[in-house]
Write a structure and sequence with these properties.
Elements: H1 16-21, H2 24-30, E1 34-48, E2 57-72, E3 78-81, H3 83-86, E4 91-95, E5 101-110, E6 115-120, E7 143-148, E8 156-167, E9 178-181, E10 193-196, E11 201-208, E12 219-223, H4 224-236, E13 247-251, H5 254-260, E14 268-273, H6 278-282, E15 289-293, E16 296-297, H7 301-309, E17 316-323, E18 326-333, E19 346-347, E20 357-361, H8 364-369, E21 379-384, E22 399-403, E23 406-407, H9 411-420, E24 424-429, E25 432-437
Length: 439
């Protein structure tokens, strides 16, 4: 990180005795790169005039303000924050640690990973910034600092340790893979920096677990390896596409682990290998157990999604598998998920139970967009109109497996079934199947 104007550089701590004395030298080095973010949104509202024409609606605006944090990661003013901090903003202002204010423009946002890139415009200067550290080098117990702007206060620093390095926390973002820390993180810290003791960025503070809304010592940070991928894609222009392995998998349960001769229930077992896919080309077979990728353990679906999100399409990676009780490594060339069959996006309407749902043919490309590791060919729901009857029993991401007890194979097939009349619909959701009957 470049030294900020007017700040005398001090050496970073090199021993435990240095740390016992103070974190101050480290904070002085890294805090200038953490900014406060203010956003303004003009929300459209409807007001009713009491006179002279009762019931006539009148449009107006209500200004909504929100705040969060961000981290400068390039000297030209490129900032990383959370997508939810700047979502829908009409105006974005950033305030540096030295109280200077600048307007910023949104470069890109990826809501699947809850990350956004901003850029300070027209400043014509070099800004202090943080370099990123490989988040895979972090271990449980490492001391970290969290820097942000909680509750609208000016910059605040808290300390703690890394509590977990591969924590799944559903519903936060598509990666579902986080560094967990007990450093205090509160509302307003979102988008701020989680920093290691060598002064490098290891994560973007994203969420907390709390029943009160305040910190209870369970905070989640998006790992820097995901952040670095988003920054690289944003600078080139584009969107993260998670590579495709060309296999379907399921988590290894204790019973499966015993059956495969594994020492513990970890990894993903290959259920199907798709013809002409990367897995087939690498020689993967049914019942192979994927236990590591690039020497990083794969314990579950979240771990695999994270590893793939940090890799580029066309990269060749070593994948460690267990086959018939023996461990071996295969070289797997990653590919972009194909859109086969074509999605045939259709809005279902008319007087029938699925009216208001938008459906597509499932494919590897659609599964990637929906953040799915496990999927099957067929028809999936991608949208449901607000207030639609279909919204009573289906939601985006659901698979429509069957109608009237017969399998649904495609969107065209489903439309024919609807035209003939349907009395029941079987729905697949998160590995469970339920059937809804209609009278």
């Amino acid at each position: 990180m470049a030294d900020s104007p007017g700040v005398v550089a001090q050496p970073l701590p090199t021993s435990r005795s240095d740390l016992a004395y103070s974190y101050a030298p480290l904070v002085k080095r890294v805090s200038p790169a953490v900014v406060n973010i203010y956003t303004t949104t003009a929300a459209r509202v409807q007001r009713r005039l009491p006179f002279p024409f009762p019931g006539m609606p009148q449009a107006g605006e209500r200004v909504q303000n929100s705040l969060g944090s961000g981290v400068l990661v390039r000297p030209d003013g490129l900032i990383v924050s959370n997508a939810h901090v700047v979502k829908g903003a009409d105006e974005i202002r950033v305030v540096l640690a030295d109280r200077r204010e600048f307007e910023a423009k949104l470069v890109m946002q990826d809501e699947r990973y809850d990350l956004a890139l901003l850029r300070i415009e027209g400043a014509g200067e070099k800004f202090p910034f943080l370099e990123m550290r490989d988040s895979d080098s972090i271990e449980v117990g490492d001391v970290v600092l969290a820097i942000g702007n909680p509750f609208g206060l000016t910059q605040t620093v808290t300390s703690g340790i890394v509590s977990a390095v591969a924590r799944s926390a559903g519903g936060i973002n598509d990666s579902n893979f986080f560094l967990q820390t007990d450093a205090a993180i509160n509302p307003g810290n979102s988008g701020g920096a989680l920093v290691s003791l060598d002064g490098r960025l290891i994560g973007i503070n994203t969420a907390i677990y709390s029943q009160s809304g305040g910190s209870v010592g369970i905070g989640f940070a998006t790992p820097s390896n995901i952040v670095a991928r988003v920054v690289a894609i944003g600078e080139q222009g584009g969107r993260i596409v998670r590579p495709w392995l060309g296999v379907s998998m399921q988590r290894v349960t204790p019973d499966l682990a015993a059956g495969f001769g594994l020492s513990r229930p970890a990894g993903l077992v290959v259920k199907e290998v798709f013809a002409d896919g990367p897995g087939a080309a690498a020689g993967l077979k049914r019942n192979d157990v994927i236990v590591a990728m690039r020497d990083q353990p794969i314990d579950d679906e979240a771990g695999l999604r994270f590893r793939l999100s940090t890799l580029q399409v066309d990269a060749t990676v070593p994948v460690r598998i267990v086959r018939a009780g023996k461990e071996l490594t295969v070289e797997l060339k990653l590919a972009a998920p194909p859109e086969k069959p074509p999605r045939e996006r259709s809005v279902l309407d008319g007087r029938q139970p699925l009216s208001g749902a938008t459906v597509v043919n499932m494919s590897p490309a659609v599964a990637e967009e929906l953040g799915l590791v496990e999927w099957r060919p067929g028809v999936t729901v991608v949208e449901v109109k607000p207030g639609a009857y279909a919204g009573r029993f289906i939601r985006p991401g659901d698979m429509i497996l069957a109608t009237n007890g017969q399998d649904v194979k495609s969107v065209a097939d489903l439309k024919k079934r609807i035209a003939a009349g349907i009395s029941s619909v079987s729905i697949g959701r998160e590995g469970m199947v339920s059937t809804v009957q209609f009278r």
